[in-house]
Amino acid sequence: MYCDRCGSPAAEGEHGPCETARRLEPPRYCTHCRRRMKVQVVPTGWTAGCVEHGVLTSR
Amino acid sequence: MPEILDRARAQVLATGAGLDEEGILEVLRLPDEHLPELLQLAHDVRMKWCGPEVEVEGIVSLKTGGCPEDCHFCSQSGLFASPVRSVWLDIPSLVEAARQTAATGATEFCIVAAVRGPDRRLMDQMREGVKAIREAVDIQVAASLGMLTQEQVDELVEMGVHRYNHNLETCRSYFPNVVTTHSWEERWGTLKMVRDSGMEVCCGGILGLGETIEQRAEFAAQLAELDPHEVPMNFLNPRPGTPLGDQPVVEGRDALRAIAAFRLAMPKTILRYAGGREITLGDLGTRDGLLGGINAVIVGNYLTTLGRPATEDLALLEDLKMPVKALSATL
């Protein structure tokens, strides 16, 4: 599993700052494969799509 | 009370004439103990020359990422190792975003693209998108598409775009430290064309790019010279992978001092809270800014980062007894 903000392995290193930052950011990396996702932010939400693992939404 | 505040009261509050660069710098240098008086004066100026209403806007990215320019703060530049990927928003999603923005009470919806300037494909997307929004949603459409040619300015006017955003980002003397792929003067040229076309000019920038206090004053004075209809004030939210990714965040007190100083430089301008206020000011600071010169907000999310939920900002405005500007007042 990977950190959805920095893309490095979730079990390695310190991801506290990533967690804090994620309150005001959409995810950028797929947690399953580390691919950069296609992210679309709109005023009331976001979607983040991985070509392999599907689309996440803020809702 | 410091002499500069007396002078600002006599000049800006009484006559509506903004402070010059020297005066702005004096304001930016005021010690913390005078911050409450400064904010009160800026608020008085805003109330006298703009009124209690707050203009609410939503923004959306039509084309995200992959930009050829090297604006050092921007995660959408294709030249940096940013995690932001290139993506286009389809027209139905654009209309839905406008609809949701209008539902918050917003009167402005700004369509933004991460480009040096629009190409034919983007202008065609804009034409289709603006038409679809105007047919379905009761909201004013603004645009931010980078540097324009005269033909593109004319085309946007013909589409019905009523306001154009093009930020100078920072003062002329510091700009080459932030952007090297185009010049401050090129941006100024687009702004002059927009102004001459009759579209409203929206032009602001980002504080906390590493500029000095003197350069912050220079920037406010240059904006005042442009006399834009609206000035969006952003505070740097350092983005991973960009050259300014490790830049410290602006201190809340410095941000509030800057808001008040910009208000005293431009007493009659729409001064809008834009990106970065959440990390620079937090909830309490957001309130202080609205009581210190700000009279417009971007609600909801930004282009690549998230903002406070619109409901929180609207509740704050209600609490402050600041009515949201109605669409009828903007037409």
TrEMBL record, chain B:
InterPro entries: Aldolase_TIM, BATS_dom, Biotin_synth/BioAB, Biotin_synthase, Elp3/MiaA/NifB-like_rSAM, rSAM, rSAM_sf
Chain ranges of the Radical SAM core domain: 52-277
UniProt signal peptide: none
Gene Ontology MF annotations: biotin synthase activity
Catalytic reaction(s) noted: (4R,5S)-dethiobiotin + (sulfur carrier)-SH + 2 reduced [2Fe-2S]-[ferredoxin] + 2 S-adenosyl-L-methionine = (sulfur carrier)-H + biotin + 2 5'-deoxyadenosine + 2 L-methionine + 2 oxidized [2Fe-2S]-[ferredoxin]
Cofactor info, note text: Binds 1 [4Fe-4S] cluster. The cluster is coordinated with 3 cysteines and an exchangeable S-adenosyl-L-methionine.
Alphabetical UniProt keywords: 2Fe-2S, 4Fe-4S, Biotin biosynthesis, Iron, Iron-sulfur, Metal-binding, S-adenosyl-L-methionine, Transferase
Enzyme Commission (EC) number: 2.8.1.6
Residues engaged in binding [4Fe-4S] cluster: 67, 71, 74
CDD domains hit by this protein: Radical_SAM (cd01335)
Domain of life: Bacteria
NCBIfam families tied to this protein: bioB
Task performed by this protein: Catalyzes the conversion of dethiobiotin (DTB) to biotin by the insertion of a sulfur atom into dethiobiotin via a radical-based mechanism.
SUBUNIT field: Homodimer.
The protein's name in its UniProt record: Biotin synthase
Native source species: Paractinoplanes globisporus
